[in-house]
Specification:
The protein has 17 helices and 21 strands.
Length: about 550
């Protein structure tokens, strides 16, 4: 009788144990915690890391920290036996005292103050840039887009001239869904494209007119982002194929310039947003000069690998950029751009995901690469370099999951997908969000062009489906209006400013939810045989179809 009772009790214990035994996937997700995340953010965003500028003492500290963390997790070096990939960069630092910018016309001349009214630089690897009496042409939005039947350079020769242009694209200005994609910015609206196109047209200088709405950020962000050392990937021509001079003018400075030509900026804006607009010579001549120190430097991407146990030659990549803007000694008071939200949070998330994957009892079928890239703030340079010098070929890269600025406001009911509707990865995100009782939504601010402003875009451009999840806006306690207000406050007060520092009052539970969701997506992809594709009609579909044929 006693033996029977004992066996019954033993069986009950085993049954209870089985009921409480957690799924390994659940255990791995639970390893992502607010405390672990906060610890990494505080280190990476500390003053000791000096704003994490590429090719600086802050880079050395950052890269060493990341390598140490990946080593401690037992992850393998991800690039030719090392944890780093050298990224050759050129560093150019404008001497503010050297900058001269003046415009002359029949009615007189104007001088523009560096920093207050104009931000100027060059991507050419030249210590001195001088322009004399370059004719100024207003080219509207500076766009050549055959698929939209749009060409702002039609009928005008701008070789050797200065082009003045608007930021964003015509659909934003009019709200007309028949123009480009309406208020949602296309890549043609990005400053990177506009400078590239101006160079293709042979312009000597290219100036953008800044407005907070269409740019997506205030003038203070332009001042902070384009002062101090600037980095570029150099080509065989030492970037002499770029415009000699690139820059921004404040809206007020542009108004003054156009009044000198007898023109009204608002009227020109209205005209530029209409189909059939033609570029307008202004009868003005621009002269400018600046001096830069030029250095050839090395920065580094950091790569850590969890090899797959069945298809190790196929990879899922998690990305985050580790860099920020460094130190600006010319600033009074706090001169360190700590970049806590942007992007110590994403880099900390990368480490948290790596830790979660290493808690699994066995690796997934496919490999998982944790890639922390450099120089995102300088135009996605680190991710661009990896995309052109990949460890895993694009045809064998399953997907890229990117993190740039995690949610610090607390749990949300929703998940924002930047570029919603572009790829099959939305289906994976939908399933993972549903498992959390959440829903997907498209970007609530498509006019800001976030899809073209972070590292996933470097991979999309070579055909690899890339998912960029942003923080939701439907806060579980405060709702949507409260969240949008807090986001706007961050952009106005802290984005690309020294005040972007770690805040102990941040609620990182929302970030943890998003990271667990990203873990779920990556885990499913790494244990499947699927190769997600872009949706029909998207600009990257043909490249992915070609990669499918290569496989």
């Amino acid at each position: 009788m006693q033996r029977t009772t004992f066996l019954l009790l033993l069986g009950l214990c085993f049954a209870l144990s089985a009921c409480h035994r957690q799924d390994p996937l659940e255990i791995a997700q639970q390893a992502i915690t607010p405390e672990r995340l906060a610890e990494h953010i505080q280190v990476l965003a500390s003053d000791a890391f000096l704003g994490r500028a590429p090719a600086s003492a802050g880079e050395m500290l950052t890269v060493n920290y990341l390598v140490e963390q990946f080593q401690a997790l037992g992850l393998q070096p991800g690039h030719q036996g090392t944890y780093t990939q050298d990224v050759p960069l050129a560093e150019l630092t404008v001497d503010p005292r050297s900058v001269r910018l003046e415009v002359r016309g029949p009615q007189g001349q104007l001088h523009f103050r560096y920093g207050d009214e104009a931000m100027l630089w060059t991507k050419r690897l030249a210590p001195k840039i001088t322009l004399q009496a370059s004719e100024v042409v207003f080219v509207g939005y500076g766009i050549v887009a055959p698929e939209y039947n749009w060409n702002d350079y039609a009928g005008v020769d701008v070789r050797g001239k200065t082009v003045l242009m608007l930021v964003n694209d015509p659909g934003y200005a009019t709200g007309d869904s028949a123009l480009f994609t309406g208020r949602a910015m296309t890549y043609y609206g990005r400053w990177t494209y506009k400078f590239e196109e101006a160079a293709r047209q042979g312009a000597a200088a290219a100036l953008l007119i800044h407005e907070t709405g269409p740019a997506g950020y205030p003038w203070a962000v332009v001042q902070g982002s384009w002062s101090g050392p600037q980095f570029t990937l150099a080509n065989e021509q030492q970037n002499m194929d770029r415009c000699a001079l690139e820059g921004w003018l404040t809206y007020e400075a542009a108004q003054r310039l156009l009044r000198l030509a007898g023109r009204d900026l608002e009227q020109l804006k209205a005209a530029a947003a209409q189909p059939g607009f033609r570029a307008l010579p202004l009868g003005l001549q621009l002269s400018a000069a600046l001096e830069s120190t030029v250095r050839q430097v090395q920065s580094r991407n950091v790569l850590a690998l969890l090899p797959g146990q069945k298809q190790p030659d196929e990879v899922v990549i998690y990305t985050a950029h580790w860099d920020h803007l460094g130190v600006n000694p010319s600033l009074a008071g706090d001169s360190i751009y700590n970049g806590a939200l942007d992007n110590a949070t994403g880099t900390a998330g990368l480490l948290a995901l790596a830790h979660a994957f290493t808690t699994l009892p066995e690796p997934p079928a496919r490999s998982v690469l944790f890639l922390a890239v450099t120089a995102e703030e300088q135009g996605l340079l680190g991710s661009t370099y990896y995309a052109t010098h990949p460890v895993f070929p694009p045809a064998k890269t399953v997907a890229v999951l990117n993190m740039d600025g995690l949610n610090v406001l607390g749990p949300m009911r929703d998940v924002t997908v930047i570029g919603y509707g572009l790829s099959d990865l939305d289906d994976y995100a939908q399933a993972a969000a549903a498992a959390q009782g959440r829903y997907l939504r498209p970007d609530p601010e498509p006019e800001k062009g976030y899809y073209y402003r972070s590292d996933h875009f470097s991979f999309a451009r070579i055909g690899i489906p890339a998912l960029y999840l942003d923080a939701g806006i439907d806060h579980v306690v405060h709702g949507t209006e409260w969240t949008l207000k807090r986001r706007a406050e961050y952009v106005a007060q802290h984005y690309h400013k020294p005040s972007d520092e770690y805040n102990p009052s941040w609620d990182l539970h929302g970030a943890v939810d998003d990271l667990r969701l990203l873990f779920h997506i990556g885990y499913q992809l790494a244990n499947s045989t699927d190769f997600p594709n872009w949706r029909e009609g998207t600009p990257f579909r043909a490249l992915r179809d070609q990669q499918r044929n290569e496989r």
